[in-house]
Amino acid sequence: MTPRRLLIVGGGSSGWMAAAYLDAALNRDGRKLAEVTLIESPDVPRIGVGEATIPHINHVLAVIGIDEKEFMRRVDGTFKQSIRYVNWTHNKGDYYHHPFSRYRPGPIDRTAAAWLRSDRSIPFTETVSAQPIVCELGLSAQMLGPWDLGPPLTYAFHMNALKFADYLSELATSRGVTHHRDHVVDVKVTENGHIESLTTKAGLRLQADLFIDCSGFAALLIEKQLGVKWIDCSQWLLCDRAVAMHVPYERYFPGQVRPYTMASALSAGWVWDIPLQDKRSLGYVHSSAFIELEQAESELRRFEGAHTAGLDARIVHFKVGHRAKAWAGNCIAIGLAGSFIEPLESTGLYLSDLAAVMLTEHFPSRSDMAPLAFRFNRIMVNRFYEILDFINMHYCLTRRTDTSFWREVQKTERINDRLKAKLDYWRIKPPSPSDFEDPFFPGQVDWPLPTGGLPGDHRTPIDTAGLWSHESYEAILYGMGFLDQECDRWFGTNRPKSVPLKQVLDVLAMAPRKLPPHHVWLQRVLGMPEYGRR
Fold first, then answer.
1. DSSP string spanning 40-90?
2. Measured between alpha carbons, how far is 159 from 80 in angstroms, rounded to an integer?
3. Phi (first) and psi of residue 357, to 5 degrees
4. Helix (H, G, I), strand (E, B) or coil at 415
5. Sheet of strand 195-200, all strands in order from the earlier edge strand to the far edge
6. In this structure, what are the phi and psi dihedrals at residue 421, rounded to the nearest 5 degrees?
7. CB-based burial, 489-500: b 16+ in 10 Å, e otherwise
8. CB 39 within 8 A of CB 221
9. Which of 70, 187, 213, 266 is most buried (CB neighbours < 10 A)?
């Protein structure tokens, strides 16, 4: 079989992850299904912020064949075991965790129902997971020696996204991926809407069977050449800008490297705090309709402290939405060219790596791509709206009324219809696995997707729990006080104490002795420098 020619336009994390993954997945075990080429402009500035991931990244690393410790060394990586949400509910120093690991008491899990009937004196996730306390203690996700603490803790990573792209580029090109640093100056599109070739500033004419658009919001192929429309979703997620900065440990080291991502709510959005081995990456994600840029930067600096004086801040503009079709003709949009949702649950890279995984699974071996594109587009749009629901939920459950931004995000018109139906249903019964078996809830509006003028599948997207199960929903719902007033009415105010599962108590009894502080593990295993507290 003659290998298919794949041409990726654009580098960065998305482009090089697609190149490395597709090459590793399609060209292995003595077969070669694809010839992969990547072209990127040498003059397009790269945006480098700390990146937080979810556990799906471990699949990508495994397929590419990347050793975990070597990966962490190359990208200044640290462990991520949870997301800690601060001041999202009341703005009174309240916080809760969304951890990656949890325990179950047996084949029938009624931990949520039992917790709702308790006095809630212990946060819900701390009754089913050891990770919130492990995180609060600043402990590593791994031991210095062999693991003997029961089931391993599930974790993802924090990393330097620019270094990740460079590492993937090095691996991919060493394995046969062709790399051009050149400008695309012309694109030839045939009458049937397929891209035939690209011409570069240096005079190269590059032909391919499949073109992958990783050119970011510029969308050089999917939009500028094929005219595939962007579907705006900003009515449900109002943030459209971020002020980002790095705080080097040489300037300020807080005495620990947190083994979790922190998301702290401010007046018009929230701040990510991502710890790396040499610095912390901060970014104030906010709505330009509710705060001026200068005010946002000033608020971020006040939030972090006086040590930010003199540190550069970078402005990142973004738009929430997705393409009417991510795969149109012989062009597939991956990364920002295809969709974007603010990174509150660390899904920035996830949609990119999911697209690469799905393209591998739906790789066209014959000329007819339309059936594969049909299914690819359905899967990607389902996952987009699954993420949209989940992020939207963090905002609409807030009780904050201290600023106009937080009052606005609670309004009915800021909650998408599918999420409304979910929340109404979960006021009747706690979330459970069957809710995602045929996910259409009472009162849900059956609205078709915008066509963008393109044929294909325009059915209402559904949430298949491909990323977040009912357990993740429980973590956010009960972390933000969902049903607290109703439970007072249903069960009274004199309720029994909340009780953690035995597995949680057993792990926490041993964890401080067996798990080293996160920064100690990084220093001893990866060679992270030692920084004095400042």
1. E-TTSPPP--EEE--TTHHHHHHHHT--HHHHHHHTT-EEE-EEEEESSSS
2. 10
3. -65, -45
4. coil
5. 184-189, 195-200, 205-207
6. -65, -40
7. eeeeeeeeebeb
8. no
9. 213
Q: Are strands 4-9 and 34-40 parallel, antiparallel or unpaired?
A: parallel
3-state secondary structure of 160: strand
Q: Which residue has the tokens 């970078």?
A: 314
Q: How far apart, in whole angstroms, are the C-alpha atoms of residue 463 and residue 237? A: 18
224 is catalytic: no
What is the rounded CA–CA span in Å between residue 517 and residue 424?
Answer: 42
Separation CA 389–CA 347 (nearest Å): 13
Q: How many helices (H) and strands (E) does the chain have?
A: 16, 22
CA 492 to chain centroid? 39
H, E, C per residue of 34-54: EEEEEEECCCCCCCCCEEECC
**CA 391/CA 198 separation, integer angstroms:** 38
Amino acid at 460: T
pLDDT tens by residue, the chain, 534 residues: 689 999 999 999 999 999 999 999 999 888 999 999 999 999 877 766 789 999 999 999 999 999 999 999 999 999 999 999 999 999 999 999 999 999 999 899 999 999 999 999 999 999 999 999 999 999 999 999 999 999 999 999 999 999 999 999 999 999 999 999 999 999 999 999 999 999 999 999 999 999 999 999 999 999 999 999 999 999 999 999 999 999 999 999 999 999 999 999 999 999 999 999 999 999 999 999 999 999 999 999 999 999 999 999 999 999 999 999 999 999 999 999 999 999 999 998 999 999 999 999 999 987 789 999 999 999 999 999 999 999 999 999 999 999 999 999 999 999 999 999 999 999 999 999 999 998 899 999 898 999 999 999 999 999 999 999 999 999 999 999 999 999 999 999 899 999 999 999 999 999 999 999 999 999 999 999 999 766
> Would you state the structure tokens that stand for residue 195, as one six-digit string?
């891209």
Question: How is residue 228 annotated by DSSP?
Answer: P
CA-nearest of 61, 168, 66, 150 to 102 is 150
Q: What is the spatial distance between Cα 364 and Cα 383, in angstroms, rounded to a whole number? A: 22
Q: Name residues whose C-beta falls within 8 Å of residue 292's C-beta, 6 or more positions apart in sequence.
A: none
Query: Long-range contacts made by residues 184-190, C-beta under 8 angstroms, separation at least 24?
Result: 184/9, 184/39, 184/41, 184/220, 187/220, 187/221, 187/225, 189/225, 189/226
pTM over 0.85: yes
- Sheet order of strands, 50-52 included: 50-52, 156-160, 78-80
Largest CA distance in the chain: 78
**What strand order describes the sheet that includes 339-340?**
230-232, 321-323, 339-340
Choice among 32, 69, 80, 224 that is catalytic: 80
Half-sphere exposure of 175 (CA within 13 A, CB side): 24
> What residues contact 426, with CB distance under 8 A and at least 6 apart?
473, 477, 482
